[in-house]
């Protein structure tokens, strides 16, 4: 039997829209800590907060969109998130002190959280169940590619054209994101009266999909570990005099992920999630250990070869698991639940790690992060991995 088509027009458009959103996010987060320290003479932890408070805002955005996305409509929620993001990006031009910057970063995070939850939900609806792992993996490449070229452009623009030029670039990109979303055709979810009644009211189950919680909890620790790379790699590279090489780290990261993605997504569908997940924990941890012992540029770039497939494969596979184990009519809530927990780790990570760095140094930080990733693998086993054989897709059950 022929496999259902994955590469539809809508799959491509929602991936492109998501790429634009994440390009802006990675462009700013990779350079905001250095900007905050240089412009406002902020401490390491406050610079980390400037990067991380965006993620905290994102949590609020996902909390709102997770509850209302199925009621309002996936495409309408996407428009709300993008338009709100356009407004907040323009507010960056008004920043004159650290307090205003933190407020704008928080508001921008809300808009991004709403929009990116919508794209994640929409793509889950257009990916065939038989190609869940493969499709989610390819969709996640939009984030991976953005994570490569976003930081590269952010650091490059900051060094050669000034930080305000980043705001100009972000304004252009967010408008392109809105224009691309206009061409989306999104399937409309139909709900019976019982489902609509269950969505109303202030209940925990209206804000979180409980079936997606186990894999989401694991993602907190993976998010903390990756935040050490995203927020502090540039500062670490400055300390060891490898800042020029560091600007290419995410390029290598992206290439390594691109090479591995065609295999990991298919293995997820054919062999099951455990066959993919456990190696990703190990590979990610190896990459972090390599970063902790970097003494020359080649080794820094080699670490990206491990961190790319490690973290990138984990994120797409974990998202696929969250959707797979959840009911079909709660797909939007499952998506927002997963990203809320992953964002929680990535959001608080820079602030918490910023408190550790002056005490333990960068090298020891990355050793500790490798241990955190391995501990997350053990947690994954107890929360999901050991029960994987007994778990059937609730999407399949509810579609019968």
Structural account:
Helix 1 (9-40) packs antiparallel against helix 6 (164-181), helix 2 (44-72) packs across helix 13 (331-383) and helix 11 crosses helix 13. The chain is 81% helix and 0% strand. The radius of gyration is 20 Å and the shape is globular. The chain has 400 residues and is an all-alpha fold. It has one domain (9-186, 206-390): Growth Hormone, Chain: A, CATH 1.20.1250. Mean pLDDT is 84; it is low at 389-400.
Short description:
With 400 residues, the chain is an all-alpha fold. It is built from 14 helices and no strands. It is globular, with a radius of gyration of 20 Å.
Derived from helix and strand composition plus strand pairing, the structural class reads mainly alpha
User: Remind me, CATH topology?
Assistant: Growth Hormone, Chain: A
> What overall form do the CA principal axes indicate?
globular
Number of domains: 1
The helix count comes to 14
How many beta-strand runs?
0
CATH class label: Mainly Alpha
The biggest sheet, with number of strands, parallel, antiparallel or mixed sense and barrel status, is: none
Helix content: over 70%
- The unreliable regions are 389-400
Distance from N terminus to C terminus (CA atoms, Å) equals 20 Å
Mean pLDDT: 84
Order of helices and strands: HHHHHHHHHHHHHH
What's the CATH H-level superfamily name?
MFS general substrate transporter like domains
Please state the second-level CATH architecture.
Answer: Up-down Bundle
Rg for CA atoms: 20 Å
Strand content: under 5%
Topology at a glance:
Elements: H1 9-40, H2 44-72, H3 74-91, H4 98-126, H5 132-160, H6 164-181, H7 193-199, H8 213-239, H9 243-246, H10 249-271, H11 273-292, H12 297-324, H13 331-383, H14 394-399
Helix pairs in contact: 1-2, 1-4, 1-5, 1-6, 1-8, 2-3, 2-4, 2-13, 3-4, 3-6, 4-13, 5-10, 5-12, 8-12, 8-13, 10-11, 10-12, 11-12, 11-13, 12-13
